[in-house]
Amino acid sequence: MDDLLIDVGESASGGLDPASRPAAGPSIAAWQAASGHFERYAYPAGRRGVDPVHVHEDVQICLSLNFPGRYRSGRWTRDVPTGALSVVDAWEPHAAEDPCDRPVEARYWVLYVAPERWDTLAADIGAAPRAGIHVSTDVAAAGAFATLHRRSRDGADALEQEERLVTFIARLLPSANRSSAPGNAAPPASTSHITSDRLDRARDYVQAHAFGRIALADVARECGVSPQHLSARFRARFGVPVHRFQTLLRLDRARRLLAAGASAGDAAAACGLSDQSHLTRHFRRYLGTTPGRYGRAAARRVKTGTASST
Question: Is the entire prediction scored with pTM above 0.90?
């Protein structure tokens, strides 16, 4: 992700001094993850601010969490309501500004996706090409984006992030980019009905590769369908998304290893997790305990069983 200032002295609001942004600037958090480059901005309460015109080499998606925003470019002015998502195309010159003074800390969550990846995901669902600046007020899309943002910050693995990104794009594009022309309404052939045996094949593929790194595209290729369509149908048939199915398989193996006396670190490595803390997060989330507590409880059961049999 590359952020290039065009002209630091140029304002997109017809001369309003961009120095009205706080002198110290916003509070910023940024991290790189499997699904893209993430940022979080928090502007303290104060006078309305205006940024200089700039561009990004990636597609920018921004969630205005608790305060509205506005984009200006040579072609458009786009107001962004509180809670809405905005999409700015790659290399589209634009400037962000506050529509009014900020009575509270204004917070924004941002994701940058490489245009090539965006185009591939869009093509899978028959969406129109990228163009300019769009605003979406779709609540489901905003919720999917917020979950993706949180889970990437929590260190979710690549498969989960990929599936959440695919789900988010599928929800966002119909309200933001998909053409309403009748000729563009039909989905591509790759999203035709997935038979039960193909879904079983996808499940078996995940089972066979549960402890290694797999991509949603690999599973979809096994079925001959698009990743987006597979994700939706897999969840409908098995009750969980693909990434959670893999996680549950890993947890099942970890439980068995811990019960047999393995350390949490060894169990994490054997299950294909990056480290012990990753395993601990999964245990807390899905089992409500930690690997250490689980292992100790299993050891006590073994000792009790041995003592009672003597």
Answer: no
DSSP state at residue 189: G
- List, edge to edge, every strand of the sheet that includes 59-64: 27-33, 36-43, 106-113, 59-64, 85-88, 133-136
User: From CA 307, how far away is CA 209, in angstroms rounded?
Assistant: 39
Cβ pair 67, 27 in contact under 8 A: no
Q: What is the pLDDT of residues 42-56, one digit of tens each?
A: 999 999 999 888 899
Q: CATH topology for 3-186?
A: Jelly Rolls (2.60.120)
The residue count of the chain comes to 310
Token pair of 11 as six digits: 């304002």
- Cβ proximity of 174 and 126 under 8 Å: no
What CATH number labels 243-309?
1.10.10.60
Q: What is the CA radius of gyration of the chain?
A: 23
pLDDT digits (tens, 9 = 90+) for 73-114: 878 899 999 999 999 999 998 999 999 999 999 999 999 999
Query: Rounded to an integer, what distance in angstroms lies between the CA atom of residue 274 and that of residue 281?
Result: 12
Domain limits of the chain? 3-186, 243-309
